[in-house]
Design brief:
By secondary structure, the chain is an alpha/beta fold. The chain has helices spanning about 55-60, 75-90, 95-100, 115-120, 135-140, 175-185, 225-235, 255-270; strands spanning about 1-5, 15-20, 30-35, 40, 45, 105-110, 125-130, 145-150, 160-165, 185-200, 225, 240-245, 275-280. Helix 6 links the parallel strand 9 and strand 10 (about 185-200). The longest helix is centred in the first third of the chain and has 17 residues, at about 75-90.
Length: about 280
């Protein structure tokens, strides 16, 4: 087990325990909250090798509170694409794209089955992805996508990227600060990073759920950011936040009027339990 001995945002050593919860494998994990900045994180997690067992094929194919309902199905692919297209619009990505040259390079970290990699390839980008799940990498490669299996922090690239994305990825990382720092170095001048992650803090629908919140999946999700802590993490490593939006309520049943109304309110008034952020690299 890897122990989180200090806050990754403010280096504080003062935490309070929120609650403990059992994983899909029966282990107990405890959620802490920094008394100084409010960052939430697991007290201890399996190390990078141990945690791989949580991302075996069943995580992507069997619906549980910890996994997806067949991530490889056409229906889920369509839904994931619908969401990230909305995210790109909300973050004003397409205007950023217009100002780039003909040769545009992007990297999706934690790309899963490569759906975003494929979308950007179809838009004319030199598009690549990196993922730890062998099943996802096999699926992506069989669909002709430039996706490799590996640890981003241990992977070098011979050219800079114009765009790096982490869609629902940063909460899974053991060392998110180091990943953001490496992304800064892997981006071209004025390059952009786009992130989505579950959101704590502020006026937020997640408060209706408490410890039953849909994103308190332990130990797959390790860190839980507010916009304040995520912005600080980015700015500490040389980025300037450009856009920020929230969406999602998980209120009521999917497809019902109550869910649709709650989701509208979540997005309209920035009360969502998911957030998307765009940030530009500030030149050294």
């Amino acid at each position: 087990m890897k122990h989180n001995n200090k806050c990754i945002i403010c280096d504080s050593l003062s935490f309070k325990g929120l609650f403990s919860k059992e994983s899909a494998h029966g282990e107990q994990f405890t959620l802490l909250k920094c008394r100084t900045c409010g960052m939430e994180f697991l007290a201890s997690v399996p190390d990078e090798e141990e945690i791989k067992k949580y991302y075996e094929r069943e995580y992507f194919t069997k619906r549980t509170e910890w996994g997806y309902d067949n991530y490889f199905s056409p229906a889920l692919k369509a839904e994931i694409e619908r969401v990230f297209k909305l995210n790109l619009e909300d973050l004003d990505f397409y205007n950023f794209e217009k100002n780039l040259g003909r040769e545009k390079r992007c990297l999706d970290i934690g790309c899963a089955a490569g759906y975003f990699v494929g979308y950007m390839k179809d838009r004319g980008w030199d598009s690549a992805g990196i993922e730890i799940s062998g099943d996802c990498v096999d699926f992506a490669q069989k669909n002709g996508l430039n996706v490799i299996q590996g640890d981003y922090l241990k992977t070098g690239f011979n050219r800079k990227f114009d765009l790096i994305t982490l869609w629902a990825t940063i909460e899974h990382l053991h060392r998110p600060g180091e990943v953001i720092e490496k992304a800064y170095n892997d981006l071209a001048d004025n390059g952009m990073i786009l992130l989505s992650t579950c959101r704590t803090g502020g006026l937020n629908f997640m408060k209706l759920k408490g410890k039953r919140w849909r994103f308190y999946n332990f130990p797959e999700h390790i860190f839980f950011f507010s916009i304040k802590t995520l912005k600080t993490l980015l700015e500490q490593r040389g980025f300037s936040v450009i856009n920020y939006r929230t969406y999602g309520s998980d209120f009521g049943k999917s497809g019902t009027i109550s869910r649709k109304v709650a989701d509208y309110i979540a997005k309209r008034y920035n009360m969502g339990d998911m957030m998307i952020v765009s940030a530009k690299k500030v030149k050294d």
